[in-house]
Amino acid sequence: MSCLKGLKYTMCVVNFIFFICGAAVFALGIYLMTSSRFTSLLPSLQSLNIANTLFITGIIISCVSFLGFLGALKENRCLLISFFILLFILMLAELAAACLLLMYEKQIDQFIKDDLTGSLKKYKEKNVTHTNDWDTVQKRLKCCGIESYKDWEHHVPQSCCKSDHCLKNGTQYWDQGCYNKLKDVFDSNLLNTGIAVIVVCLIEVLGMCFSMTLFCHISRSGLGYK
């Protein structure tokens, strides 16, 4: 009995911590949505920017963790099994996404390049949204174009310049393209990303084990749906 009480309060504490983290991520997403003009370089994925991603992630973490916290605290079978099912669905979605990324890496790579090319063309057409996005990315990442400054042809923007006077001689553009730089950053952090995914999956598995153990104990005790 004491072990089960320890399990119950462990679930409460852990889920409460995750709820606070989810609320913080949610708040950060709202802050970025209201304060940042950056949307997305990919025209096909305009709604999938950093702010919206944080906003949705924060909601998911907060809702799932609150469900686990309340289910453990109240020893409610319905809430606990709902918590288990949601964690299971999330883990399946993460594994499916990882498999799709590995299986269709070349197709995704080409899709991103094509979309970036379309976004670059809209910049040349003076589309305000894409102008702000490209200028922001190029200044912050210190890159130019998709693969190099040559992608801009004769319309290289000021944000590609290493200094304020580079447009006069055309020799002071950032050497690396933004896509190549982002890809290099991702490749260099591939191991850390893999470890993070494994850790998240382990946390989800532990959460499912704890919730199911508590659920079975409540069922055997005949407490029913409180």
Protein architecture, described:
- The protein has 226 residues and is mainly α.
- It folds into two domains: 2-105 and 200-221, no CATH class; 107-182, Cd81 Antigen, Extracellular Domain, Chain: A (Orthogonal Bundle), CATH 1.10.1450.
- 74% of the residues lie in helices and 0% in strands.
- The protein has helices at residues 2-35, 50-74, 77-103, 105-124, 128-141, 166-169, 178-188, 190-221.
- The longest helix has 34 residues, at 2-35.
- The radius of gyration is 23 Å and the shape is elongated.
- The chain starts with a helix and ends in a 5-residue tail after the last helix.
* Total helical elements: 8
- Count every beta strand, where a strand is a DSSP E run of 2 or more residues: 0
Structural class by SSE content: mainly alpha
Helical amount among residues, as a percent range? over 70%
Q: What is the 3D form?
A: elongated
Uncertain runs are none
**Measured on Cα atoms, how large is the radius of gyration?**
23 Å
The mean pLDDT is: 81
**Any idea how many domains?**
2
Q: Largest beta sheet, briefly? A: none
